[in-house]
Amino acid sequence: MKTPLLIFNENGIYCEAADVYIDPWRKVDKAIITHGHADHNRWGHKQYITHHDNVPIIKHRLGNISVSGIAYGESFMINNVKFSLHPAGHIIGSSQVRVEHQGEVWVFTGDYKIEDDGISTPFEPVQCHTFITECTFGLPAFRWVPQKEVFSDINSWWASNQSEGKTSVLFGYTLGKAQRLLKHLDTSIGKIYTHGAVENMTNVIRPMADLPETTLITAAVSKEELKGNIVVAPPSAHGSTWIRKMVPYETASASGWMTFRGARRRRAIDKGFVLSDHCDWQGLLDAVKATGAQKIISTHGYTDIFSRYLRELGYDARTERTQYEGELNELETKKESEVDG
């Protein structure tokens, strides 16, 4: 029986023909990395291959590593296996990995979304025989509204808080979500302040994106300076001593999980905005259809439900276990660098 082009083993997703892993969760010799979030980008590999824009991000997070940058659409060969990276639209520098060998083409998405967020290179469907897809929000209940409407609501919330003399504290993960929020905040309302973790990552990304001016919150910044303005911070800042400086304030979280009111209550958040860097139900279905693939592998999220629905549509669909988290743990109390949004 022919060995599949990509297999799932204890280290990650492995291409035996090339002797290379994609987003491995254990230390390996050679790794192709889809993006900079911690569940896909681990420390300890001997060699990293990733998109050019992701190089400074993973260096910032992992330190002194051996890494090669590749452009979107640029083909590279490893042991006669042809690889290329294609936009995933998830965050800055995120990629899908196309693998071609002996006439067979597989695509691994990593994490992705199909809506153009105005900061990441938009998702590009890639024709293939087998499509490995995340399904973090693989339930019909998840249906996103256009981000233009979401940001209109966010900016209205900020303006309303300002009229009441309150500071607006908006939570979003340090890499990806925070920069997306910054990009679309209306600076005519007031100033944007940032938590140190957000500021540090944003400074890494600024050369690759047109982002507004931000002010780092330090001990020298007074409560009066913050009043009426907006603060972008990681979820880990909520409930910390750091946030006491913002009083009086209103909090909000931007997440796909804000679809469910209970999620907001569990986090003691005043306001929830439904905004995700992953596909909703329809986005996943549209992406699958656009690839032309008949074999679909679901890796993380609502895998069983999504795969069962695909089989009802006539696809050869199955699931595989991975150690990717995506937004699945977004409601847990974790360090800001541990999960994405």
Give an overview of the whole structure.
- There is one protein chain.
- With 341 residues, the protein is an alpha/beta fold.
- It folds into 2 domains: 188 residues, Ribonuclease Z/Hydroxyacylglutathione hydrolase-like (Metallo-beta-lactamase, Chain A); 127 residues, Rossmann fold, CATH 3.40.50.10890.
- 22% of the residues lie in helices and 24% in strands.
- It is built from 8 helices and 19 strands.
- The longest helix has 17 residues.
- It is globular, with a radius of gyration of 20 Å.
- This is Putative mRNA 3-end processing factor.
Brief write-up:
The protein has 341 residues and is an alpha/beta fold.
Features of the shown structure:
single chain, 341 residues, alpha/beta, Metallo-beta-lactamase, Chain A, Rossmann fold, 2 domains, 7-stranded mixed beta sheet, Xnuc_lig_assoc, Putative mRNA 3-end processing factor, MBL, RNA endonuclease activity
Topology diagram in text:
Layout: E1 7-8, E2 13-15, E3 20-22, E4 30-32, E5 47-51, H1 55-62, E6 67-70, E7 75-78, E8 81-87, E9 95-101, E10 104-108, E11 130-135, H2 147-163, E12 167-171, H3 177-184, E13 192-194, H4 196-205, E14 215-216, H5 223-226, E15 230-233, E16 249-254, H6 261-266, E17 271-273, H7 281-291, E18 295-301, H8 303-312, E19 316-319
Parallel strand pairs: 3-4, 4-5, 5-6, 10-11, 11-18, 12-15, 12-16, 13-14, 13-15, 16-17, 18-19
Antiparallel strand pairs: 1-2, 2-3, 7-8, 8-9, 9-10
Reported CATH architecture of the largest domain: 4-Layer Sandwich
Q: What is the CATH topology of the largest domain?
A: Metallo-beta-lactamase, Chain A
The CATH superfamily name of the largest domain is Ribonuclease Z/Hydroxyacylglutathione hydrolase-like
Question: Which structural class do you get from the secondary structure elements?
Answer: alpha/beta
Which shape, going by the Cα principal axes? globular
What is the beta-strand fraction? 15-25%
Query: What count of helical segments does DSSP give?
Result: 8
| Radius of gyration computed on alpha carbons | 20 Å
* Number of spatially distinct domains: 2
Order of neighbouring strands in the sheet with most strands? 7-8-9-10-11-18-19
Terminus-to-terminus distance = 40 Å
Return the CATH class of the largest domain: Alpha Beta
SS elements, strand count: 19
Protein name: Putative mRNA 3-end processing factor
Organism: Aquimarina spongiae
GO molecular function: RNA endonuclease activity
